[in-house]
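Worked example 2:
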Amino acid sequence: MSSNVATAGAYPTDTNRRKGLHIALWIAQGLLALAFGMIGAMKTFTPIAELAEKMPMAISPALIRFIGISELAGAIGLILPAATRIKPVLTPIAGALLALVMVLAAAFHVARGEFGSLPVNFILGGLAAFIAWGRFKAAPIQPRD
């Protein structure tokens, strides 16, 4: 047997790696869209009096609503443009902006001494940055013809 035949299945091809990355990105997009969709819906649709019991009201109710709507838009942006292939460049933009939201959230929590919230910010921000990188560079989705 030639060495090419003997090692053909031993190393993943570039196509297999790209397919695996594409699948990993879709999984990350789904999980992140679910997380930001739930968090954004809570901040957008829960009455302010009820939110005040759950969240520290160090920021104005209008800002909480704005953040909630932004998170909902980001959740939609992670899935819809890529799934429809209509303006799929919006998906990595959504990922980049959600990563920025998590950086700002981490800074907010550090300023308030709420260090227990940082792991969630880092995990969500890291996933968002992974999606931005992956969909911009490594496995972009091509638009419809």
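The first helix runs from residue 3 to 6. The mean pLDDT is 91.
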